[in-house]
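Notes from hallway chat w/ T.B., transcribed later so I don't forget. T.B. wanted the structure written out for a chain they're using in a teaching module, and asked if we could keep both sequence and structure tokens in one place. Agreed to drop them here.
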Amino acid sequence: MASHQEKASYHAGETKARTEEKTGQAMGATKDKAQQAKDQAAAKGHDAKEATKQKASDTGSYLGQKTDEARHKAGETTEATKHKAGETTEAAKQKTGETTEAAKQKTGETTEAAKHKTADAMEAAKQKACEAGQYAKDTAVAGKDKGGNVITQATEQVKSAAVGAKDAVMNTLGMSGEKGDDTAGGNTNKDSSTITRDH
């Protein structure tokens, strides 16, 4: 049995040695592959970094160029705007000057026309005032003549009315009669003269 055991031990040792050898080989291959992958990744990373730098540089150059173009265009636009604004301002000044001159001329004409119109109106007002004064004077003279006649007529009417009223009162009170007629006649004259004196 010892020999069988020795054989088994020997075989086990061989198997172990082979396993260790294979494991060592596999580990070595894995290490090699890992190192190779690491080197490739580093190379790719470096290439990517360089490509990014190049792209950034290209982009910066492109942006710089575009910025310069934009500045140039903005400068041209600003200059054109200044020029246009200057022309517009000059045209506005000229138009304002013309408008002001026209307004002055129109104002002068309007003022002159207003002066003439005012003078004509004042002359017409004076003429009307003179005519109105003459008419009032003529009317007053005519009224004075008529007024005297009107007062005389009114006095006569009042006298007649007073006599009629007195007769009516006397008749109502029963004082009419022979004696009353004389008295009424006498009183009427007396009353009439009194009324005449009052006026």
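Follow-up for T.B.: Confidence is low (pLDDT under 50) at residues 178-199. Might be a good example for the class.
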